[in-house]
Amino acid sequence: MSASIATTILACSLGAMLVAATPMPKTSESPAQQGPGNQVTPATTPATTPATTPATTTPPPPTARPTGDATQASRSGAPAGVAASSAGGAENAPADAEITPKLEEAVRKGFEYLRRVQKADGSFGEGRYGEHIGVSSLCAISFMADGNVPGRGDFGDCVQKTLDFVLSHASETGLLVSDETHGPMYGHGFATLFLGEVYGMNSDDDRVRDALVRAVQLIVASQNDEGGWRYNPVPADADVSVTICEIMGLRSARNAGIKVPKSTIDDAVRYVRECQNPDGGFRYMRDAGGSAWPRTAAGIASLYYAGIYEDESIAKGLEYLKRSAFPRAGNGGPAMSMSMQPHYFYGHYYAVQAMYLAGGEHWRAWWPAIREELLARQGADGSWSDGQNGNAYGTAMALIVLQMPKRYLPIFQR
Questions:
Q1: What angle do CA 375, 380, 384 make, to 5 degrees?
Q2: Cα(130)–Cα(119) distance, rounded to whole angstroms?
Q3: Are 141 and 191 spatial neighbours (Cβ–Cβ below 8 Å)?
Q4: In degrees to the nearest 10, what's the CA dihedral of 279, 231, 185, 140?
Q5: How many angstroms separate the CA atoms of 246 and 268, rounded?
Q6: What are residue 276's DSSP bridge partners?
Q7: Which segments of the chain have a pLDDT < 70?
Q8: Is the pTM of this model over 0.85?
């Protein structure tokens, strides 16, 4: 089904859709790819206005980093047998020397690369993902991870241009899409996340609020009976990969004061849990299928963003992730070949979030390893190469990962 047909169908359902004011739960008792990583290898009131206070009005300063001994990972991989997560994750418990001069230099080079390749209309992307709203949103989020926002920061102008681009492609149905490519809900999820982060940092722009509210309504209306989402904005089938994109968009919007139904989140949590295999990994869809580390990282992150922090599914998923994808370059070994890593940046984008939200030993072991691996992969022009989705995408994902310790983006706070 094309995006245009899907949006026409969806327009009929949006007029009757109601959104409740209940925030996402913070409990471990919520009910329970032919996409990235698919290698076998809430009472209701209309959500037309946001809550009166956004999550934050200015980017918070980076958290102070304590000195002291940090436990290092063994050369054979990350340590096992630790709790699913530490209280508060890594938000208020940094590892030693998280940000280094080498990292800052690499980030600056990456920013300069993205500035050079940004198009006149504010978009990013190349090839089949040219002027893609999802890739463009991720690039803007990477700038925001360093505190750049419209009107502020060395790269605030880049964020503003992308914001204008995204808003210019916000439809009346709520769908955020810049082209007719297959799978508009991927781009919609990332664009909703971007708008949520912008609105959470500055609630003065009514255009952002209105587009964000409609985007959330569309996500809620297109959730299927299983509790998930897939490529098109209609409640048909679902997969883990698209589902996590929508969960993150909903979490960002809720953090910024936009109303999200509790029932939508509960159903999404149930769906994600039903996609987990006995080995701790996650399969692409609810029916039988093999585990893969990129979608396992996405599955763990989705549970955290649904407000679940202590759960057997998370503990099992973290152990699977450490067994299957612990960064080798930062653990005394060579960086794995890009050709051997399908959906490498997608996977590590979610994996670093999962380890940051888990905190404790998970974060202390994982962070230096992935940091060094990514630093070793940066090109001379400041980019990170991604043969599947383009270098703007790879660079944006790498920059978001490398800036997790800066703690600027509201989405990464518990």
A1: 55
A2: 10
A3: no
A4: 70
A5: 9
A6: 282
A7: 1-88, 180-182, 329-340
A8: no
